[in-house]
Amino acid sequence: MKKKNNLAIRTIDDINELRAQVFLTPAEIAVLLRIGENSLYALLGSDKCPFRVERFGRQLIRIPSKSFWEWYDGGAAA
């Protein structure tokens, strides 16, 4: 049975904490974008993903915070 992530963004402080991190997890990205797990992993695996995705081994995926927030805020990501 999969463990569900109870991540919730309730205040601006929650977002500021995420902005301060070096890497974001896929679960954090899903909550920020308000999309489901299947849609998120389809996005992360596509060539058209608008921000950098780092893979460590076969299963560990992290998104560099700077790249994600630049895209999210409307700037260029890479």
* Low-confidence sequence ranges: none
| Number of β-strand runs | 3
Helix proportion range: 40-55%
Shape: globular
How do the helices and strands follow one another from N- to C-terminus?
HEHHEEH
Number of helices: 4
Largest sheet: 3 strands, antiparallel
Helix/strand-derived category reads alpha+beta
How large a portion of the residues is in β-strands, by DSSP E?
5-15%
Query: What separation lies between the terminal Cα atoms?
Result: 35 Å
Radius of gyration of CA atoms, rounded to a whole number: 12 Å
How is this structure best described in words?
There is one protein chain. The chain is an alpha+beta fold and 78 residues long. Helix content is 44%, strand content 13%. It has helices at residues 12-20, 26-33, 37-45, 65-72, and strands spanning 23-24, 54-56, 60-64. A hairpin with a 3-residue loop joins strand 2 and strand 3 (60-64).
